[in-house]
Every structure is written in structure tokens, then in C-alpha cells.
Amino acid sequence: MIYQKKTSVLIIILLLCFGLKAQPDTIPKKRKAQLTPLPALSYAPETGFTMGVIGDYYFDLAKGDTTVSVSKVRLLATYTTSRQSIFEPSWALYSPNDNYRTSGYFRYRNFNDRNYGFGNEVESIVVNFVEKDEVWEADTTNFQQFWSKRILFEGNVLKKIIPNLYVGPQIELDYVFDVRNDSSVVVQETPDFQNTTVKGFRGGIGLNVTYDTRNRPNYPKTGSYVQLSNHFFGKWLASDVMYTALGLDARQYFNMYKDHVFAVRLFSNHRFGANIEDLPIRGLARFGGRELVRGYFFGTYQDRHFLTFAAEYRLPFTFLEDSFLPLLGRLGMVAFFSGGQVYGDYHQFAFNDFHLAVGGGLRININKNETTNIRIDYGFGLSPNSAYKNKRQSALYFFLSEAF
Question: How many domains does the chain divide into?
């Protein structure tokens, strides 16, 4: 009897010991923080060549829960050959169980921009006279170039309502100042060319509703992302103009074969409650640049509303990781097709008025855990009148992370 009791006690102790030993294996381990600093060497038509530093810091607020993305803070500080300076910290944070998430950025820029006027066509003629070596030279284009300084802050805080659905407030504060022309004399030969307000302050608050089933935000392979957002710009935030902005950003990702990804995006933006002439140029619906319809200068087409779409096929060379040149496994290629259209009123929208663009690019993976890529893209704008003298625009882009 005593032997049986001792045996029972020993079995209980052994079970407890095994249980205590196994317990740590059931607790997820916090993922290690990672820092990815890089020299910011890039090029885009809007900036010229860029030199500086860009760094991503990844850290785990979800305490090892791999169903929740790691959080990221990015710092960008650059100077360009076009004499532009940029300072931009940004963040995307995810709490345990993804109950809360917040993202946004602060941006300071001293840079030049272009005003192409309003509408879905850019047929204006603008002559810029610049004095060089005591000689006046004429530069004829279809846009007016100017310089400005800008401070912009955008951020949101979202709460998970049900699985994959997040709702919360958002804010946008935009101050543009120290505006100046790049040329000494500007002659607008096209009588109907419309100048747009540049300097001033915009302040807006609104609601953000996001549905997100992506397997990871940084480089998704599967899932959907749909974001509905609005901002009310008004006197309560000292805004110089009162209007409402609405936006829809819908994306879908398909894992076609192994690591092959087919991604599509529909993005629309709308302005209500103000005359188009009263909206500052930074408050207009504009597309182009390194994210929206690559191949056109950002702002080539601008108006009260826009609708854009994009499709991209991503082919990483991960199948070469075990080859005799494993570094080739960090490379990849993409091909993309996109289009966009701006319009002042809904009756002006037409399916045959989209400005299309095509292109391709190279990817260089610099962080395998988070699939952070350097992207080098070249886009061709297919609209023949996008540049002066009935020429087409094209653009080369270097940047960190995917366009969407």
C-alpha cells in the first residue's frame, strides 16, 4: 500500500515536471527586432537622383503571435540633384491579437512641382523664360513649374471590430509655404490654362474603415485589402478651404504558383463641397508618380475626382536559392499595367478616356524574413499628349518596397 502511494506520488511529480518542461514550448517566442539601414540612392522624374539614408526597423508588439504582422518604423532623409530635401519618418504598428493598429507619417519637403492645369487632357502651352549667363532662354512646356516647402502629417488609429475589420479616426494636416516660380518670367500662351492655389493650410479629420485579410502587409501573397476613408476639411482645424474628401482603395492578391503573385488594385478619390478653383493643388485628386500609374509625372492629370487601376505580376527568383549562385535567389522581376482618369463631374467620366501605362522592373531582396525589396521600375505612359509636342512620358523609379 505504501509502495503504491509512493508510486502514485512519483507519477504525479513526473507528470508535473514534464508539464512544466513543455509549457515554455507552448508560449510563442517574441520575434527578434531587425534593423535594415540602406543608403537612399534612387531616381524619379519628380526628384532627379536622390542621395541619403533610409532605414526600416521591425519589432514585435504582438509578443510572438505570427498571425499578427510585425510593426515597422521607417526613417527617410534625402537630398536630391534637383536641390530637394526630404525628411519623412513613418510607422505601422500592430498590437497583440491585432486589436489595434495605427499607421501614418510626418513629411517635410522642400521641392519643385508642376502645375498642368485641370482636366483629363494636358494641351496647355507654357513658356518659361530663365536668365542664364546674362542670356534669356525660353523653355516651352505644357506645365508651369514652381517650388514650395511643405509640412504634411497623416495618421490613423484603428480598432478591430470583428475579425479582419478595423474602424477608427484619422487626421490630415497639410501646410504649404514659401512658394516661388522656378523661372523669372512665365508666359501662358494657352488662354484657358488655369492656375491653382498652392500655398495655405488644410486640416481635416474623418473616419477610416479597413477590411484586411492579407497574409502580411509588407509583401502580401494572398488576401484582400479594402479601405474606405473620408476627411472633413473645415474651420475647426483652421483649414483655408472647406470640403469633403472620399477615398476607396481596394486590392486583391493571388498566389498563382509557389512564390508567384498576381496583384490588382482599384483606387478612387473624390472631392465635394468646394469649387475646383478654390481647392489647392495639394488637395486635388492627382495621379502619377512611383505608386499610381507609373510612367506619368505625379500631377500630370488632376481634377476633382479620379479613378485608377493597376495589375502587377511578381516573379521572385527564389527557385535559384539552392543553385550554384544563391544570391540570384534574392532577385525578381515584375510586369505591370495600369491606367487612370480624372474628371470634374461624373457625367464627364468615360471608359475610353483612361490614360494607360505599362512597364516592368527588377526586385532585389534585402530582408528575407520580411520580404523587403528594392524596386527598380520603368514605366511608359501610353498617352501621346502627356508631354509637350505630342510626346509620351516615361519614368524610371528606384524605391524601397512595392508600389502596393
Answer: 1
